[in-house]
Amino acid sequence: MARRSSAARRYAEAAFQVAERDDTLEAWRSELEAAAGIVGDDRALRVLANPAVPEERRSALVDDLLGDRASRPVRNLVLLLLRRGRIEDLPRVAVEFGRLDDARQGITHATATTAAELDRGEIQALTDQLERSTGGRIVLDIAIDPSLLGGVVVRVGDRLYDGSVRGRLERLRNRLISGAL
User: Fold this and answer.
1) Of 10, 23, 90, 138, which has the most beta carbons under 10 Å away?
2) Is 94 in the same domain as 111?
3) Are residues 99 and 110 in the same domain?
4) Where does a domain end: 72, 103, 134?
5) CA–CA distance, 11 with 28 (Å, rounded to integer)
6) What are phi and psi of 150, to 5 degrees?
7) Is the pLDDT of residue 2 over 50?
8) Are 62 and 77 in contact (CB under 8 A)?
């Protein structure tokens, strides 16, 4: 699995360099995401990844599937992945490309898990607080976990902020056991 992941990362890095050089990062990102969605469909992938189907036929299928939704450079990357037997890596290449573009823009992804749904004001306040504490832009995903009891747990990269009722009770319990109170 690591080999496939690193290959996808290398293809994404090469594509990112080309897009940066040509000043077409936004177009590359949207076209790669569209291509990954189209070509990554299970039915299409079964045919495209099948070595029993002649390569010319699979290449023609890629052209048909992508139509005018992908520029020549993006189409060439998809066809390269097809020729090298790595077409199933295309969705991961698109994800890695997006990660590189987010890093370039200073965007950090975070996930907030709450016991109940948050309204827009609460989401905005949480996003603002995270941006102040990290010093960068935050794209916040919200997950609901009714087992939390209350509060919020936020993961930003490899950091975990536990403001849940369960987390607070656990910390209080640990302090009581250790005699810190």
Assistant:
1) 90
2) no
3) no
4) 103
5) 13
6) 175, 170
7) no
8) no
Mean pLDDT confidence for 83-92: 94
Q: What is the pLDDT of residue 180?
A: 61
DSSP-derived 3-state class of residue 113: strand
Residues 56 and 135 in one domain: no
**Whole-angstrom distance, CA of residue 83 vs CA of residue 70:** 18
Phi-psi bin for 55: left (phi > 0), alpha (psi -120 to 50), beta? Answer: alpha
> In the structure encoding, which two tokens stand for residue 140, read together?
């916040």
Coil vs helix vs strand at 51: coil
Q: Is there a contact between 60 and 51 (Cβ–Cβ < 8 Å)?
A: no
CA distance 77 to 13: 12
Give the per-residue pLDDT at 4: 52
Count of beta carbons in the 10 Å neighbourhood of residue 120: 7
How much is the average pLDDT of 145-154? 86
Q: Which residues pair with 160 in a beta bridge?
A: 155
Say which CATH number the domain at 81 has: 1.10.520.20
59 vs 69: CA distance, rounded Å: 16
DSSP tag of 137: E
User: Would you say 44 and 65 are in contact if contact means Cβ atoms under 8 Å apart?
Assistant: yes
> Which residues, listed in sequence order, are joined to residue 97 by a DSSP beta bridge?
none
Report pTM. 0.74
Hey, which residues does 154 pair with through a beta bridge?
A: 112, 161
